[in-house]
Amino acid sequence: MLYYRIMKEDQAISALNALAHTQRLRVFRALVVAGPGGLTPSTLADQLDVARNTLSFHLKELAHAGLVSIEQQGRNLIYRAEYGRMDGLIGYLTEHCCQGGVCEVSPSKTCC
């Protein structure tokens, strides 16, 4: 189970701003799908058919927002989705969902 901390407003704005671009959203989703193993920039570029220099810019923006981490493995960089940060954003957005009452979206359960 992942433990996360609900974000502060400025962190949520930064994360939402980073995801508010088609290519960055596609990159982030690809990293989420890749799981904890992550992906190299060249693999991401090939999968998403994105120019490497453009991809580098988008990865930097996602990293700046804390949505991806970067690890050096030999000569390669491995990018991974930061699941705790993603969960923190979701927590921020749903923190007061239906004021803790019965969820309007799914009436069979209590919100969040």
TrEMBL record:
Source organism's superkingdom?
Bacteria
Return the Pfam families for the record.
HTH_20 (PF12840)
The molecular function terms of the Gene Ontology recorded here are: DNA binding; DNA-binding transcription factor activity
Q: Which CDD domains match?
A: HTH_ARSR
InterPro entries given for it? ArsR-like_HTH, HTH_ArsR_DNA-bd_dom, Metal_resp_trans_reg, WH-like_DNA-bd_sf, WH_DNA-bd_sf
Per the database record, which ranges form the HTH arsR-type domain?
A: 4-101
User: Keyword set for this entry?
Assistant: DNA-binding, Transcription, Transcription regulation
Protein name as catalogued: ArsR family transcriptional regulator
